[in-house]
From TrEMBL:
<feature type="modified residue" description="4-aspartylphosphate">
    <location>
        <position position="63"/>
    </location>
</feature>
<protein>
    <submittedName>
        <fullName>Response regulator</fullName>
    </submittedName>
</protein>
<dbReference type="InterPro" id="IPR001789">
    <property type="entry name" value="Sig_transdc_resp-reg_receiver"/>
</dbReference>
<keyword id="KW-0597">Phosphoprotein</keyword>
<feature type="domain" description="Response regulatory">
    <location>
        <begin position="11"/>
        <end position="123"/>
    </location>
</feature>
<dbReference type="InterPro" id="IPR011006">
    <property type="entry name" value="CheY-like_superfamily"/>
</dbReference>
Amino acid sequence: MGQGTELQGRRILVVEDDFVVAQALCGLIEEAGATAVGPIGWADEALAYIQSNKDAFNGVVLDVNLHGQKSYPIADWLTENSVDFVFTTGYGAEALDPAYAGCPRCEKPFDPRVLFRLLGSSAL
């Protein structure tokens, strides 16, 4: 099986404020056989989108810091609604609020294989 096969057929929402990173992520997701949804770069827009389009995706790549706002309210909603997500961050684990320390996380620059494995680990 090739890289990212654990994402085959999934719909992955990309919530990332860096346009170049977001475009690269979308390309990697598509190459892995999944459908990239988004990207969305602002916390309030992402929260509004997930609340009104919860059937449009079944996994999320979630940047911790979106234009200076933490994405924790988005992570809370995803957790409450049993949606798989992986935090991405340019900082180490210590930068995460302790309440989120147990969440799957990939540090930037990330290895797509690790990201896909984390996203696919609890796939339906």
